[in-house]
Prior knowledge:
Blueprint: E1 8-25, E2 30-43, E3 48-52, H1 66-81, H2 90-96, H3 103-120, H4 125-129, E4 135-137, E5 140-142, H5 148-160, E6 166-169, H6 176-185, E7 191-194, H7 204-209, E8 218-219, H8 228-236, E9 241-243, H9 250-259, E10 264-267, H10 269-272, H11 275-288, E11 292-294, H12 301-311, E12 334-335, E13 344-346, E14 356-357, H13 359-365, E15 366-373
Parallel strand pairs: 5-6, 6-7, 7-8, 8-9, 9-10, 10-11
Antiparallel strand pairs: 1-2, 1-15, 2-3, 4-13, 12-14
Helix pairs in contact: 1-3, 5-6, 9-11
Amino acid sequence: xxxxxxxxxxxxxxxxNMKLNAPFTTSFGTFQDxxxxxxxxxxxxxxxxxxxxxAFSSPWYSEETVKTNKHIMEDFLIPLLFEAPIHHPDExxxxxxxxxxxxxxxxxxxxxxxxxxxxxxxxxxxxxLGGNKEQIDVGIxxxxxxxxxxxxxxxxxxxxxxxxxxxxKIKPGSDYDMLKEVRREFPNIPMMADANSAYTLSDIETxxxxxxxxxTMIEQPLSHDDxxxxxxxxxxxxxxxxxxxxxHSLEDARKAIELGSCRIINIKIGRVGGLTEAKRIHxxxxxxxxxxxxxxxxxAGIGRAHNIALTxxxxxxxxxxxxxxxxxxxxxxxxxxxIVDKGVIHIPQKFGIGYDINxxxxxxxxxxxxxxxxxxxxxxx
Length: 381
C-alpha cells in the first residue's frame, strides 16, 4: 500500500524544565531538575507529531547534552528533514546517516515523524511499529537512597502498587549489603541491579557474590564503551549481564551477542538513535533468542508514550522502566497521564502516541521556544 508523502512545513523546539518529585541518584550523581526538548513536527495539513529528547544537561550518561542536542537539531538535522517529503519514518534515519552519532538528537526528531506518520495513517503508534500487545508489564527504577530503611520503604510501596520488577541502582560500597537487605525483606520479587558502568574487572569477586540474590540481571556493570571485558565477566557470573550504554546500534548488538558479552539487552530509543533502529535491534534479538526490555531516561509523558509503543513488540518479554507519570512528576504534559494498573499499562488506542498533549502544562514548563519554517530552507532552482 502506498501513502502520500509527508511534507514537513514547520518544526518547533520547546525547551522544558521539569522538577522530579524527588532527587534521583545513580553512580554518576544526583539531580532533581530535568531539562529536555519537546519537538513538534507539523505537516502541510496542520497535523502535528510529537517527540522528546532524552539527553541530560551534563554529559554523564553519554557525550550528548541538552545544548548539543539543540545545536545538532537546529544546524544539521532540521535542514535535512526539510530537504524533501518523507514517505515512511524509516527514511529519517537514512537521511540522518551523514551526521555521526548524536543519537538522542536524531531520536527526538525521528520520534515526532513517527507520531505524525501514525496519525496520518489513522493508526496508534504501536500498530504502526508492528506491535500487537494490548498491555505491557512494567517495572520501576529506584535510585541510590541515603538509608537502607528508606530504600526498603520505597521498595515496599512499589511492590504494593503491583510493579512487576524492581530495579536498584548500585555502585562500589553500595551493593552487596544493600541488595542482601532487600532480598531478605522481599525474597520473591523480580529484582535487578543497575551499575551504570561503576565497576571494573578488579571488582569481579564482589560481582560474583551477587549471584546469591537470584537477580534477573546486572545491568552495565563495566565501562560504557566495552563489550570485551563484559564477555570475560559474563563467563564468571551465573547472573545474566544486560548491556545498556554499550549498545548504540544494531551492529553493537550483533557484536555483543556474538562475543557473549550479555544475555539480555536494554533498548533505549534515544540511545540507539530512534524507533527505526530500536526495531532493527529488537528483530535481531528475536531471531537470536535474546530477551530485550525498554529502559527509561526519566522521560516526561511524550517520551513515555513512545516507550510504551515500542514495548508492544514481541521480544520485549521483560518488564521495562516505563513507570507511571506520578512516580516522577507532580504534573505531566500529557492527558491522561501514564497510569500503571497492577503492574501493567494498557496501551492507548488513539492515533499516534495515544495521548493528548496538555498544552497548558507544556507552556508552563517551557523556558524557550524556537520555530523553524520549511519556507526558510527552500533552495531556489
